[in-house]
């Protein structure tokens, strides 16, 4: 429990004793003013209840808190705000409690499935996928730290017309080349043919338009799109040649994806493939018709009427009996709850799909699945670069691998410019460049609330000052250097009188578990990111204002080293929750 929680608990007890008022929660804030006191209690909610002025309530409460509890040293009242000074011993005891309980996790006995990434196999991962993967992976890490069991999953979109476009372009223009013969990463190799298809498709459309067709008609009649549509039918009918080509090209893509995931530092416990799940959900349709939840039109198509929910009517089965994405998602959700002992399912998908998930969750609820209330769409805003938006069909997407390489190169040139790694081996230097470069990328992505659209600026992200990954990693490295010089080992110390910098740092450290819990509840890694930045700022103030290695009093010196050690552990753990590594030298 942090000190603020302890104060709030004591405050409730005293309000009950003095005023016989239950369930009154007064706001307790850390005191950032020039007035004496560690915390400020806002008394105004009591004014209406007690029909007294704020000043007299502040004095009454202050006297009661100092007399009836053993944690307050003194108080003062300024314009109705009650400032309280907490006894030194409470901070010392709180530090020991936080230190001793740092590695303990209170298990929740509940399992959460987190879905993220879920790419198409017709192109490599791009900047948008980076935000998706980092968010999903970080949320999974945070949920684990908050005590949940977690299953990380993705469903790969490995079938459909877009896949056939890449396959057809390779068949027509590839001359038998492979990723190996061209020395190209597999996902990029296949993505190049997706772009190649689009170029040829546009060319054919232009030719048809020049011959007098409307653009809309030309898009339908272009020979290459008709060939792609036939290939999709052949795939659905199990044509052996088409299926073999599909399997081979997908294998190239998966190999490429896995290299990207490995460098990005994300992984999965389960992988599903749309080619296996697209037929799921059809049996649910019949059950829904039998229950009267769904209805059939004269043409045989099946719909769900959600107008009573403020939504529209949703097609679930076409008149020819083929399913749509929604049908498949219904079936996949049911299968996931059937095959896994999960209590919650979180979909990490961009906010352009908000409506889709609203509909999905409502239909599952109508079909009678109680767990539909435990489905969450972790909706996030799009990522843009200073140059603007990206388009995958036109090959103008910011490639995930290229971006990671750029971050590595930037970190390398920064480190060489600062000249701080000269004594390290080449291998250790490489680890440092990679950890710092990718740490900069990840932190910049995750410090922004997921719901917000964001502008990613690579140069700004790798600054060694301000709210950046390298700034936080540098503080961690500085503490490691300090502990090494001191030949640190944790030893219990006698009680010391703490100054304001030490108190503030202890309060920050005590907040870690509260922040993790809140971050797990809101599915926002940004809370952890901004917490660790505040912790680092607090430590740097402490470090600059308190001698440690030059401290003559051995007891104070050891306490400050203990404080530094716990700060380093908390920084490391916070960064791990964001998928970010640390280095001992920068």
From TrEMBL:
It is found in: Cytoplasm. A motif ('HIGH' region) lies at residues 119-129. Keywords: Aminoacyl-tRNA synthetase, ATP-binding, Cytoplasm, Ligase, Nucleotide-binding, Protein biosynthesis. One of its GO terms (cellular component) is cytoplasm. It catalyses: tRNA(Arg) + L-arginine + ATP = L-arginyl-tRNA(Arg) + AMP + diphosphate. One of its GO terms (biological process) is arginyl-tRNA aminoacylation. Gene3D superfamilies: Arginyl tRNA synthetase N-terminal domain (3.30.1360.70), HUPs (3.40.50.620), Isoleucyl-tRNA Synthetase, Domain 1 (1.10.730.10). Residues 5-86 form the Arginyl tRNA synthetase N-terminal domain. The keyword Ligase applies. Pfam families: Arg_tRNA_synt_N, DALR_1, tRNA-synt_1d. Its EC number is 6.1.1.19. Its main location: cytoplasm. It is an enzyme of class 6 (ligase). One of its GO terms (molecular function) is arginine-tRNA ligase activity. Residues 472-586 form the DALR anticodon binding domain. NCBIfam families: argS (TIGR00456). Belongs to the class-I aminoacyl-tRNA synthetase family. HAMAP family: Arg_tRNA_synth. Monomer. This is Arginine--tRNA ligase. The gene is argS.
């Amino acid at each position: 429990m942090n000190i603020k929680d302890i104060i709030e608990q004591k405050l409730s007890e005293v309000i009950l004793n003095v005023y016989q008022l239950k369930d009154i929660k007064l706001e307790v804030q850390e005191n950032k003013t020039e007035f004496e006191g560690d915390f400020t209690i806002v008394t105004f909610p009591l004014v209406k209840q007690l029909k007294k002025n704020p000043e007299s309530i502040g004095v009454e409460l202050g006297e009661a808190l100092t007399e009836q509890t053993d944690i307050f040293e003194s108080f003062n009242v300024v314009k109705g705000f009650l400032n309280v000074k907490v006894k030194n011993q409470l901070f010392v005891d709180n530090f020991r409690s936080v230190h001793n309980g740092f590695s303990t996790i209170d298990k929740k006995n509940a399992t959460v499935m987190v879905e993220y990434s879920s790419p198409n196999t017709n192109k490599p991962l791009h900047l948008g996928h980076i935000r998706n993967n980092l968010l999903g992976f970080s949320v999974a890490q945070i949920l684990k730290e908050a005590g949940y069991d977690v299953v990380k999953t993705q469903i790969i979109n490995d079938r459909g017309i877009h896949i056939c476009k890449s396959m057809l372009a390779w068949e027509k223009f590839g001359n038998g080349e492979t990723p190996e013969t061209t020395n190209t990463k597999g996902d990029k190799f296949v993505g190049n043919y997706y772009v190649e298809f689009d170029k040829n498709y546009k060319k054919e459309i232009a030719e048809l338009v020049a011959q007098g067709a409307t653009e809309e008609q030309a898009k339908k009649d272009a020979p290459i799109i008709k060939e792609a549509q036939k290939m999709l039918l052949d795939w659905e009918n199990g044509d052996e040649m088409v299926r073999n080509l599909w399997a081979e090209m997908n294998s190239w893509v998966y190999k490429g994806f896995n290299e990207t995931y490995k460098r990005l530092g994300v992984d999965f416990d389960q992988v599903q493939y749309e080619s296996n799940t697209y037929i799921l959900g059809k049996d649910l349709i019949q059950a829904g018709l039998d229950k009267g939840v769904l209805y059939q039109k004269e043409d045989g198509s099946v719909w769900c009427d959600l107008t009573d929910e403020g939504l529209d009517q949703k097609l679930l089965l076409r008149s020819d009996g083929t399913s749509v994405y929604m049908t498949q998602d219904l079936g996949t959700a049911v299968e996931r709850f059937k095959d896994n002992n999960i209590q919650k399912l979180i979909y990490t998908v961009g906010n352009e799909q908000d409506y889709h998930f609203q509909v999905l969750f409502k239909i599952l609820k109508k079909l009678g699945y109680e767990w539909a209330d435990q489905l969450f769409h972790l909706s996030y805003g799009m990522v843009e670069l200073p140059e603007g938006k990206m388009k995958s069909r036109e090959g103008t997407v910011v490639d995930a691998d290229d971006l990671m390489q750029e971050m590595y190169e930037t970190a390398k040139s920064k480190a060489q410019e600062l000249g701080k790694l000269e004594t390290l081996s080449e291998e250790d230097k490489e680890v440092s460049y990679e950890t710092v470069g990718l740490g900069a990328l990840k932190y910049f992505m995750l410090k922004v609330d997921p719901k917000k659209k964001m502008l990613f600026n690579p140069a700004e992200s790798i600054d060694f000052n301000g709210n950046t990954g390298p700034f936080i990693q540098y503080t961690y490295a500085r503490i490691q250097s300090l502990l090494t010089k001191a030949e640190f080992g944790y030893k219990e110390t006698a009680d010391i009188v703490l100054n304001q910098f030490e108190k503030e740092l202890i309060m920050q450290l005590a907040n870690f578990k509260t922040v993790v819990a809140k971050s797990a509840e809101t599915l926002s890694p940004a809370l952890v990111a901004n917490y660790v930045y505040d912790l680092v700022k607090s430590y740097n103030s402490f470090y600059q204002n308190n001698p440690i290695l030059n401290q003559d009093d051995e007891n104070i010196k050891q306490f400050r080293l203990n404080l530094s050690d716990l700060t380093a552990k908390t920084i490391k753990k916070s960064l791990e929750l964001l998928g970010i590594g640390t280095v001992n030298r920068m």
